[in-house]
Specification:
It is a single chain. With about 400 residues, the chain is an alpha+beta fold. Helices cover about 15% and strands about 20% of the residues. It contains six helices and 18 strands. The strands form five sheets. Strands 10-17-11-14-15-16-18 form a seven-stranded antiparallel beta sheet, with no helix packed on it. Strands 8-7-6-9 form a four-stranded antiparallel beta sheet, with no helix packed on it. Strand 1 and strand 2 form a beta hairpin. It is globular and about 85 Å long. The protein starts with a helix and ends with a helix. It comes from Lentinula lateritia. Belongs to the universal ribosomal protein uL2 family. InterPro entries: NA-bd_OB-fold, Rib_uL2_dom2, Ribosomal_uL2, Ribosomal_uL2_bac/org-type, Ribosomal_uL2_C, Ribosomal_uL2_CS, Ribosomal_uL2_dom3, Ribosomal_uL2_RNA-bd_dom.
Length: about 400
């Protein structure tokens, strides 16, 4: 009887099996709907994903909710493999502590210069294991939809696809522009971006000057409405004070160096004018307040990207267990008081005594707020002429 039932079940299974779909095993993307796991939960504020503590490592695990991230693999031609060194130099000595192991990674080639103009469409937002912020895959408008086929330069020698740092709120379908190679002359009719002359005008030309100023102000307003959008690259001289920026360059031709971490942003404070300098050919700067609170002078010919860096909730994540740090390539950090006397200035002694020592690093430098830079021309005072106001420290920092 059991053999007969088994044969019947086999016949039913073979006859009811549907036709094989070649796209059935297609890897999941962000566009496909995923069934929510019974172990996942959503925090009260709806910003984080937590888990049912069926294991100790899941009890404190907390991740920001990013349903807009692409679930597939990156564009392979825009990546290269990361060769790990374990924190050791060419002689095999450890020069960077707490590094080693970790999952295999590929480094994404990010376009930090954005010298190519034109309109670029955002294809998707991706996760990058090498940084805290997210990346945006963009393609030049008019290129083919296949990234693998259009990564090579076109007839004009221009690339068709690139990775850039995603801004907060950027999604697939948006478009960005870079004005680093110059402002198109036909963007806004009557636009004059030259600085006004300080020479006095005659009274006969006052009415003409008023009309010209009105038309130029209107053209400037239209230009700012078209260009001051999240993800666009502009020179600092054309960004009005009070604008939030990131990806700031230090030179007119260099890559972005400042404000690149997740959730960070800088604020354009003021623009210096030629009348404020006694030199006939002054070098103009723009005062920018960085994320640390420092106000710094940056060349007006340098460039910045409008908006805030994506993934602002990254700082509130919780890994949940030590193993996740190992997956990320971080080895354990041992306290100095737990070492021997030969291994750390805090080591040795009986019990947990600190021996009345000032807190220092493993190399003997003062830590926990101690200023270690030497005074003088190369010290904290007058060491950098471009710093208008230093970042707040100590009590001033707690007041923020």
């Amino acid at each position: 009887m059991f053999a007969t039932l088994r044969r019947c079940a086999q016949v039913v299974s073979t006859t009811s099996k549907p036709a094989q779909n070649p796209f059935f095993n297609k890897p999941a993307t962000s566009k496909t709907s995923h069934r929510k796991s019974p172990l996942t939960r959503t925090s009260v504020d709806g910003l984080f994903q937590t888990y049912k503590p069926v294991t100790p490592g899941l009890r404190h695990l907390k991740r920001p909710l990013n349903p807009h991230l692409y679930a597939g693999r990156p564009v392979r031609l825009l990546t290269y493999p990361l060769r790990k060194s374990g924190g050791r130099n060419n002689t095999g000595r450890i020069t960077v502590r707490h590094r080693g192991g970790g999952h295999r990674q590929r480094i994404r080639i990010v376009d930090w210069k954005r010298e190519e103009g034109g309109i670029w469409d955002v294809v998707r937002i991706e996760y990058d294991p090498g940084r805290s912020a997210h990346l945006a895959l963009i393609k030049r408008r008019g290129t083919s939809e296949s990234a693998e086929a259009s990564l090579s330069v076109d007839s004009q020698g221009r690339p068709g696809w690139a990775y850039i740092l995603a801004t907060e709120g950027m999604r697939a379908g948006d478009h960005v522009q870079s004005f680093r190679s110059g402002i198109p002359p036909d963007l806004v009719p009557g636009l004059n971006l030259e600085l006004p002359s300080s020479k006095s005008k005659s009274q006969s030309d006052s009415s003409d000057n008023e009309d010209a100023n009105t038309s130029s102000s209107l053209a400037l307003g239209i230009f700012r409405a078209l260009t001051l959008k999240s993800g666009n690259v502009l020179p600092l001289s054309l960004i009005p004070p009070g604008t939030v920026v990131h990806n700031i360059t230090l030179t007119p031709t260099g890559p972005a160096r400042l404000v690149r971490s997740a959730g960070t942003s800088a604020l354009v404070v003021a623009h210096e004018t030629a009348e404020q300098s006694p030199s006939p050919t002054p070098t103009l700067y723009t005062q920018v307040r960085l994320a640390s609170g420092e106000i710094r002078r940056i060349l007006q010919s340098a460039f910045a990207t409008i908006g805030t860096v994506s993934n602002p909730l990254w700082k509130n994540r919780s890994l949940g267990k030590a193993g996740r740090s190992r997956w990320l390539g971080w080895r354990p950090a041992v306290r100095g008081v737990a070492m021997n006397a030969k291994d750390h200035p805090h080591g040795g002694g009986r019990g947990k005594g600190k021996s009345n020592k000032h807190p220092v690093s493993i190399w003997g430098w003062g830590t926990k707020g101690t200023r270690t830079r030497k005074p003088g021309p190369k010290g904290p005072k007058n060491s950098n002429k471009l710093v208008v106001k230093e970042r707040p420290r100590g009590v001033d920092r707690r007041k923020i």
